[in-house]
Design brief:
globular; Rossmann fold; about 80 residues; about 15% strand; about 35% helix; three-stranded parallel beta sheet
């Protein structure tokens, strides 16, 4: 995660209920985001299905794959890292 240009945090109804490593990985991604300059995009929360965005991720630019244009938006976001 430290060497990655971007980190996709995949969110589903099930992942929101998980304890342990899922939550730890989200916190690790947030920590890596905080090491980058303010405004830099690193962590992109990705909603895999209709569900609520966790409060700690609401301020990030996120993508909703349940929307018809969700995958296009995700691809465009990732193209900025080329």
């Amino acid at each position: 995660m430290e060497d990655a240009d971007a980190c996709l945090v995949c969110i589903s109804r099930l992942s929101l209920k998980k304890k342990g490593y899922v939550q730890a990985e989200i916190r690790k991604a947030e920590d890596q985001q905080n090491l980058r300059p303010r405004g830099a995009i690193y962590m992109i929360p990705v909603l895999l299905e209709k569900c609520s965005v966790p409060a700690n991720l609401k301020d990030y630019q996120w993508v909703d794959l349940s929307q018809p244009d969700g995958m296009d938006k995700l691809i465009k976001s990732l193209e900025t890292f080329k």
